[in-house]
Every structure is written in C-alpha cells, then in structure tokens.
Amino acid sequence: MTNKSTRLDHVVLWVADPVAAAGFYERAVGLEPLRVAEFAAGKAPFPSVRVNEESILDLAPLTSAERTRMLPGSADSAGHPVNHVCLALPARAFDALRARLREHGVPVSDIGHDSFGARGEARRNFYFRDPDGNVLEARHYDE
C-alpha cells in the first residue's frame, strides 16, 4: 500500500465503558490497546485499539454523544453501532474530494486540524454524510 492510495484510517464505535471495551478488544480479539491510561486519567477523550499498522478503532464513550459537535445532529448517530468512518487520503485527493462533494451539493464541515488518528496527528480533516445519513471523515497526514 502506498501513501498515495485511499484507505481506511479508523472507525469510531460508541461504547458504554471505553476501558472495558478496550479490554475486550485486547483479550478477546487480540488488538493492541492505545491511550487507555491517558483516557482513564482524563488526558484523552477516548481510547483506541489498533487493527493494523494503518487502522484503529476508536472507542468513544456513549455519554459524550451529546457533546459531539463536528456535525449538527451527531448525537442522533449514538443509537447506531458506528459513529463515523474515516478515509485517509493524500493532500491532493483530500482537496479534490472536498471540491467534488461541494459540486454535488453535499454539505461538508469546516476544516479541522491536528486530529488524532491511526498514524498520529492528521494535518487536516472534514466531515460529511452519505445519502443514508452515515457520517464520514476525510483526512490527510501529508503536506
């Protein structure tokens, strides 16, 4: 896989107890836990588990649904098993996707900066919904 291809970065799952969920994914599934101690200490908003070298699952506390503001109506997704799916793209493809979505009349969020993901801090990101209401995030790590 090259850095110039589109690939899955992370999936955010709503969970009742993020520490217990991380333990389950570590023990029952064999995934490496990330930021569990930081979450427990209040220094990270959620823990994650690593799926592979490029992908993670974020374990978002269901209690944070009401405070999630990346898109209006985000709390409505709290009844669904998945909060959003993120695609990591090269910078040029990121810009092209944003322009293409706008051309098709798809609302997009403001650009965010330095958000945590599978490969650390992403330089830029934004969110949008598909026609079924699923939330997707696009991000890039490179210039």
Order of helices and strands: EHEHEEEHEEE
**What structural category arises from helix and sheet content?**
alpha+beta
Number of strands: 8
Poorly predicted tracts of residues: none
Query: Biggest sheet: strands side by side, in what order?
Result: 2-3-4-1-5-8-7-6
End-to-end separation in angstroms reads: 18 Å
The overall pLDDT average reads 86
Which word captures the global form? globular
**How many helices does DSSP assign?**
3
Q: Calculate Rg over CA atoms.
A: 15 Å
**Helix percentage range:** 10-25%
What amount of the residues lies in strands? 35-45%
Largest sheet: 8 strands, mixed
Topology:
Layout: E1 7-15, H1 18-29, E2 32-34, H2 36-40, E3 48-52, E4 55-61, E5 82-88, H3 91-103, E6 112-117, E7 120-129, E8 135-140
Parallel strand pairs: 1-4, 5-8
Antiparallel strand pairs: 1-5, 2-3, 3-4, 6-7, 7-8
Overview of this structure, please?
The chain is of the alpha+beta class. The chain has helices at residues 18-29, 36-40, 91-103; strands at 7-15, 32-34, 48-52, 55-61, 82-88, 112-117, 120-129, 135-140. Strands 2-3-4-1-5-8-7-6 form an 8-stranded mixed β-sheet, with helices on one face. Strand 7 (120-129) and strand 8 (135-140) form a beta hairpin. The longest helix has 13 residues, at 91-103. The mean pLDDT is 86.
Quick overview of this protein structure:
The protein is of the alpha+beta class. The chain is 21% helix and 37% strand.
Provide keyphrases for this structure:
single chain; 143 residues; alpha+beta; 8-stranded mixed beta sheet; 3 helices; 37% strand
